[in-house]
Known about the structure:
By secondary structure, this protein is mainly alpha-helical.
Amino acid sequence: MKKIGIVLKYELGNYFGSKSYIISTVLICLLCVGIMFAPRVINSFKDSDSDTNKTEDSKDEYYLVYDPEGLADMDVISTYLEGAAVKEASGIDEIKSQLEEENSDALAGFVINSTNSFDYYIYNKSMTDTASMMFSEYMKVLVKMDYCNTHNLDVEEFFGVVDSNIDINENILGKDSTQNYWYCYILVILVFMIIIMYGVSIATGVANEKSNRSIEIMVTTTSSVELLFGKVFAGTIAAFFQIGLVAASLLGTYQINKEYWGEGISMFLDIPSNVLIAFAVFGLGGFLIYAFLYGALGALVSKIEDLNKSAGTAQMLVMIVYFVVLMQLTNIDGVVIKVCSFLPISSYSAMFARVAMGHVEMWEIVVSAIILYLSVIGMGIVGGKIFRNSTLRYGNPIKLTNALRDLKKK
């Protein structure tokens, strides 16, 4: 155990002594803080004059409407077009010429053919253009008004019935899956990225030491199993320290500036404490399993160039779990996600997703955690043996199946 501590201290020194590690951590934290404070800073520069100027500038832009039958009310149309100015056009040619003019402030043009038909003219249509959709809402009003006139109905009474507001009092006794979906989605992606990034880093470190033969000196003073455990624990501490700082910077500054962000971002950052705890417990266990696997796979190669072939097994497994869990987030109480929440290779993301969005009993969480951490110990032992048998074997990359077969023989 003492030698594991020595290896751990040495590996942590490599992580925390790395300029790229420190600089990237600081820059990401500062970026998170800057993003969260941005609305507050922007709001501090606003004043009533700038708001007035903005309103006046927006009036320069306008929509053109050609209404040969006299069916439309220009004042009402402007309310449907986000309050923008509306000008009556003399014909289709005027609409086209205004839109084609280089310095024209005309946004788009509408030609009303009847109460239920219109033509829409625009020069360059963007992906966010909604003018035709908003104008169609106004046309629906024309249809209703025409119906009232035809059948001698009171227009105000008709609209009062058709467009009456319905009061919805929603009482959620369990969990709101719609509200929790997005932060759960982000956490699944986050744990996937942590495993891939730091798992490859551990495998690369092992492969480098084997390729430059420095590992031959290390194994004379400590066992290969202790080397692997020290490397994995160091990678785990470095990974969760970095992610913890970034998360603290993001969530902490969000709480400070919450009033400036509005409700839209809450679905991403208002994460309940029980979900964060589940994420930490299962994310740590999942990371350890794959970290031991990556470390063992790194020992199977003699050259760093061969690492991708060897580590591809772990990466493929992680990606399969990633896509399966993401696809099952919309069916969080289904059989597939329940099974995945007990498998040690997938419970690291499936179980906290169930905690966040579905119905899960406490005994399920406890059993899943026990299975996960027993599997971590098992993977550590197996990975250590593979590491031991492979460290001094050079030449072509050793296949994982062959390494496991050698363990059975011994």
